[in-house]
Amino acid sequence: MHSQEGVNGVPKLMDLLDEPLPGVGTYEDFNTIDWVREKSKDRDRHREITNKSKESTWALMKSVSDAFSGWLLMLLIGLMAGALAGGIDISAHWLTDLKGGVCLNGFWFNHEHCCWNSNETTFVERDKCPQWKSWAELIIGTAEGSFAYIVNYVMYVCWALLFAFLAVSLVRAFAPYACGSGIPEIKTILSGFIIRGYLGKWTLVIKTITLVLAVSSGLSLGKEGPLIHVACCCGNILCHVFTKYRKNEAKRREVLSAAAAVGVSVAFGAPIGGVLFSLEEVSYYFPLKTLWRSFFAALVAAFTLRSINPFGNSRLVLFYVEFHSPWHLLELVPFILLGIFGGLWGAAFIRANIAWCRRRKTTRLGHYPVLEVLVVTAVTAVLAFPNEYTRMSTSELISELFNDCTLLDSSKLCDYINVNITKSSNELADRPASTNVYMAMWQLALALVFKMLITVVTFGMKVPSGLFIPSMAVGAIAGRLLGVAMEQLAYYHHDWVIFRGWCSPGADCITPGLYAMVGAAACLGGVTRMTVSLVVIMFELTGGLEYIVPLMAAAMTSKWVADAIGREGIYEAHIRLNGYPFLEAKEEFSHKTLAMDVMRPRRSDPPLSVLTQDSMTVEDVETLITETSYSGFPVVVSHESQRLVGFALRRDLTISIENARRRQDGIVSTSRVFFTEYTPPQAPSSPAPLKLRSVMDLSPFTVTDHTPMEIVVDIFRKLGLRQCLVTHNGRLLGIITKKDILKHMAQMANRDPDSILFN
């Protein structure tokens, strides 16, 4: 992170207390930050600025700019993420259409833009225009017949394979961290873990490019999760502009929480949903100030995206719906059924996906990431092309399923038999289904099975892949099928008891699009276990304010059903699979163990490695550091008394000793090391002492050996500790680190305690 050299031209005999060394107080890769220390550092800095601001106008200006820098940073993150999201949307749309054909006016137009200014389009065939040629028309000159179909089929598969190959190769060559959705890792990072490079420049560039390619290749994945990762990368990179955030890991975590909100805001065009998502699902520490800031940043991002207008319809999202027909109380029964389906599917999906990802980690499957992606893409493309509902991009499919049928719809789903009931409005009465609708139902049923199976294998491959869109698609298909079934029931049996009071013949009783919306919410809730943010995202996404109650009912049911089968959502499951040190706030600790059962050293272990406050030499300290791999050492009065003085971190000790040997006269291996406030007078012949009190934490957290483990876990969770010392009658007994707690919890749950990777 920081260079180890100090400022040039410093007087030789500098005392180590005068100015902090570069590098002291920073962290190694794959370590946990100390929230308490970071927060107190920031408080000191703030206090200093406030005190100085009373002295001069310049200092006052600095104090104002310091207070303003947070809001400025939010503005920049919003602008950058909004612009990137707009670019991703536009290019993904264009590349998806490229699999089907090309525009002669200019190859950079997608299908819709190509046919916009054409005069030859009819309303029924609005996507047919002479300027847009399918590959068959270009290669063999005709669009009809079986040979043309085969040409289009082959071109579709080839483009899909090309996009997927480019995506996985770029990820593999330049930024291995750009794969997956990124939400499990961001949750871990926000809980105080450090993964260097995960939110870096390369990851941002590669993730943006490969996300477009992966979405366009037709794989069953969405761009929503990765957009959160992209926004967090923007946040992290822009943090480096401001010293306040560059130097303080806890402050930077606050910015990343807000950036996660921005990610959802641009992914779904749902600024409030984004803030709630960050609060409910991703963030670990979320003070009120961060709430306001993320609200502001999400607003800026949504505004930026709106001014780019990627879909050309002045909406932020693809799935805006316009229907506002009321729903009846009895319809809550099918809505709750959809909730149960969503919960069952979510739980089954998590089990299946984790089992598959574990196979990928443990067997030879993991050695061939490129081959795996290509095989899955080929299978997806070959199976998807014959069915028009899987051939189109998943977001288009969802928007078609959410759509309510009007008189002017040309879609197969809306090809009902028109019964002459004249109604003044555009709202159509329930009508009998034609053979085309039944055909569409069959195709949708096949699409449902296909999406359910293929998504299990797709999520977790070495390409950027989000989970929101595929799970919404599964739910939307199931909901639309149920909705059409209900509609036909109501049409043919409107004299049944359940329909009698509210569904007269010729009325528009049932809206299949609403069922699709509710189903999408239920499945998304079953997979991710979101509740509040899910409902808000859904009604911001679709603009259906009247449907909050159905959405709430479905989301709640799906969460209850899924939680009854398996406690954790997909992100927690992936965190545990990868062994990240994440203390889940939702997990209850119910065992009756005490601190002495978890602390190290255990009974059979060698005694705890400690530093004494005044009896060690530089050489002793260096030996202790080289012979052990701990990240810090308790400081005691003496080996005999074991009374606790403080705690010193390994990294700070190493940097200070190196620096002192370079810069301070007379520091040799036999110099005494003092952690006390005053150094006793030295004999004239002895070498100069080394004072290290400045790098020692004078207030380490301690618990007694009889503290129940549930309280210790709570302290770690709420304060974000790295380690905690265990004492008995004031004497030091041992140490508990975050890793020890995670291992202990894994053991108690009969899991392999060595699956937790990092310290």
Automatic annotation (TrEMBL):
Residues 599-663, 696-753 form the CBS domain. It is found in: Endosome membrane; Membrane. It is a multi-pass membrane protein. InterPro entries: CBS_dom, CBS_dom_sf, Cl-channel_core, ClC. The chain crosses the membrane at residues 68-88, 153-178, 199-221, 227-243, 255-279, 329-354, 366-385, 440-461, 467-486. CDD domains: CBS_pair_voltage-gated_CLC_euk_bac, ClC_3_like. It comes from the Eukaryota. GO terms for cellular component: early endosome; endosome membrane; Golgi apparatus; plasma membrane; synaptic vesicle. Keywords: Antiport, ATP-binding, CBS domain, Chloride, Endosome, Ion transport, Membrane, Nucleotide-binding, Repeat, Transmembrane, Transmembrane helix, Transport. One of its GO terms (molecular function) is voltage-gated chloride channel activity. PANTHER family: CHLORIDE CHANNEL PROTEIN, H(+)_CL(-) EXCHANGE TRANSPORTER 5. Belongs to the chloride channel (TC 2.A.49) family. This is Chloride channel protein. It comes from Scleropages formosus. The lineage of its organism: Eukaryota, Metazoa, Chordata, Craniata, Vertebrata. The gene is CLCN5.
